[in-house]
Every structure is written in C-alpha cells, then in structure tokens.
Amino acid sequence: MTAIRRAGTTFFWLLLAALVLISAGLYNGFPLVTSDSGTYLNSAINRTVPDDRPLTYGLWVLVTGLRKTLWLVIFAQGLLLAALLWRTMSAFAPRLRHPAGRLALVAGVAWLTGVAWYSSQLMPDIFTAIGLLALALLLLSRPAVAERLALLAVLLLAAIMHSSNLLTLLLTVLAVGAVAWGQHLFRRGIVHRPTWWLTLAVTLAGWLVLPALHAGFGGGFTLSRASSAFLVARLSESGVLEKYLADNCGPDNKYRLCEFRNQLPNDAITFMWDASSPLNQTGGWNANRAEYQRILRGILLSPRYYPVLLSETVQATLRQLTHIGHGDGLTAFRENTNPYWKVGEYASYELKEYMSSMQNRSQLEFQALNERTYGAHLLALLVLGLALLGPGRRRVAPALVGFVLVVGVGIGANALVTGGLANVLDRLQGRVAWLLPWAALLLLAQYLPLPVRWLGSGGPGPSRPE
C-alpha cells in the first residue's frame, strides 16, 4: 500500500509539473500553432503521409488527442517531458529530494526559458529535447531493465518524430561515444558501454523504422519525398546552387533551373514556399525531384564546392547557436488558413477557443521573455564554466559532467543539422537551447545551500549522484 501511495503522490506532482510545462498554452487560451501545424493535423485526420514531413507526429496527435480535443495532445507532451525532467533531477541532482523543490526547479526553467512555449505547440519540436534527455538518462543513470526499455522507446519515438531528429540524435550518440572513448569514460564506468551500443542501434534503426512506417501508410519507403527540394533550397541560400548552375548550364540547359539561375531567391524559405519561386514555377517538389537529386549528386561529387560548403555550414551552425529567441512563427492563423481549417476538422467544438486565443488576437508578446532567455543562457554558461573549469571542478559528480556533455553536444548537433541543412531560425534552435539553463539549474540544486525542507526527509543527501 505504501508503494501505491508513493506512486500516486509522484504522479500528482508530475501532473503539476506537466501543467507548468504547458502553461504557455493555458495562458494563450489554446494550444499554440504554426503554419506547419495544419499539415500535421491533416495527417492525423486522414492518416496520410505528408510529402514534406514525417507521419509520426500526426499519429501522436491522433492517439493522444483521441480525436476529441487538442488539449490532450499538449498535455501528453508536457507529462512526458515532466517525467524526464523529474528523472534527471533524481539522477543528477539527488540532493533535491522534496517534490516541492523539484517542482520549483521545473517552474524555474519554464520562467527563465521558452520550454513551455515549445511543449504547448501542436508541433514535434519539443521531441528533440525529449530525445536528448532520454539519451542522457540511458547513458549515465544506469536505469533498471524496465526503465531502460521505456527510455529506448522514447528515444526511438523522438528520433522518428522529425527527419532532422534522426540526424541530430545520431550525431549526438556518435560524438558522445567518441568523447567517452577518448577520455576513457567507458573504462571508468561513467558512460555505460553496452547501453551506448544500444542507443546507437536504436538511433540507426530509426532510419529504417520511419520509411517503413511511411510505406505502411502508402507513402513509399522514404524519409521525405521533399528532402531533395529542401536541400536544393538551402544550397540556393548559400550561393552554392548559383555557382553550380553557372558551371553546368550550357547552351543545352540540361536543368530546368538553368532558366532561373540569375533569379534564385535569397533565402531557402522563399525558394520553398513562394508561389513565384523557381521550384513552384516548375511544378513543385514532386515534379523536380529527379532533377534536384541529379544536382545534389553533382555537387557532392565535385570537390571544388567543398570549401564553400564547409564555410557555409560552419557559419550557419554558429549563427544558429545564437538564435534562441521565442515567438518565431507564432502569428495569428485565422479564417482561410490551413491551421484554422484543420483545427475545425479535428475538433470542431474547439474552433471558438482557437479563434479567441491570444495568438489569434495577435496579443502575444515575447520581448520580456526573450530578454530573460538571453540572460539565462549567459548566466548558465557562466555557472557551467566556473563549475566545470574552475578550481572546484573535482567536486562535480562525473554523471553531472556527463549530462552537460550530452546536452552540449546535442545543442551543437541540432545547430549543425538545422542550420547547415535547413534554415537558421529561432524556432529550430530554441527548441533545445533551454537544456543548457536546465543543466545549470541541476548543478546549482546539487551544490548550492538549499532550505532543509527542499531536501526531503533524508537530510542533505550525498554530494555526488549515486
């Protein structure tokens, strides 16, 4: 009976933490949407594979929302994230035992950063951070068999939620493995070698599971039918496409894009979505898939373009690391927009709530939050730098250092993948950047003096995670 009571108490506190993590949606008056939300809702309603993104999040919406309410979708996201944050506190800041203290830490990261603005969105963005948290717990906390299986399932789910997650999580696993090998973290038992191999297998499996899922729903065995168009759009933005066309468009104009080589858009978003862009003037991504694949092969097989590609990738990654503001894409989507139509189709009785939300009345303001977020990240860098590089660094538990490593590598991998292969956008980096202040909060909770009542009945507890 005691175990049941304890589980019930923990679940109560997790419910409170989940409400904190969807507080942005509650404040807005409805789950937040972006221009892409309509596509995900459409895939939930019709169970069809979108051309330009995975089906997985549509299935998440279908299952968690019960085809009744979109509030349940973001609540499920908040609850899953709350459980992972709770577990990271237990693993990496075990001194903070009292649930009220843990809830305060979750509230702190929600106030300091924009995490609630991502977990409250009808978008898969929050699953990038969810995947990184699951990965850190797998590699560093030595979970029991049942928990390990659950975390591996969460890792796989996060990987196949978005095609960028597949590469971000794989790069993170590989980079952490390289550091663990070079710094003897495997031999010292800080990173569990067999579990690392399991995480590698799961992240690699995602590259097969997602195409198989698409094939099962009639979308073909592919990650995305529009991937070549996104990559060509990014090459257009970087100037590489213009150079390639100048080198390869002769009198015969073997590519249709040759006609537009002096009219290429300045950015990838215009290339992809503007009605007058070369892509859309020539029939869209399906009509151009074969040609764009030939162009991509031609560029990848030509070493002369490598210096420009490397330079563009490095600068895009560095730019993306600084783009952590909030509000990107959270404009009004009223009548005659895809989100409006699909919200009405999924849960028609919630359409009035949707229309009266602060987002759709253009009343959301992000200036104060963004100022707070930039300050929180600078302070987090200062705290982590002093703790890990200062004279007291030997006091910091190896597992907590490992958590900072996983989070830092994951944030960098996300910037590389999204900035180098897609777009430099606040939304794409802000979805994971909040993990840095979270790591700093864990460190402070573990080592700063705290009120005894926050530490729980067991007293101060160990100075290092067990």
From TrEMBL:
Protein name: Glycosyltransferase RgtA/B/C/D-like domain-containing protein
Record flagged with keyword Transcription: no
Organism of origin: Hymenobacter amundsenii
Chain ranges passing through the membrane: 12-30, 69-88, 100-120, 126-145, 152-176, 196-217, 374-393, 399-425, 432-450
Domain of life: Bacteria
Keyword terms: Membrane, Transmembrane, Transmembrane helix
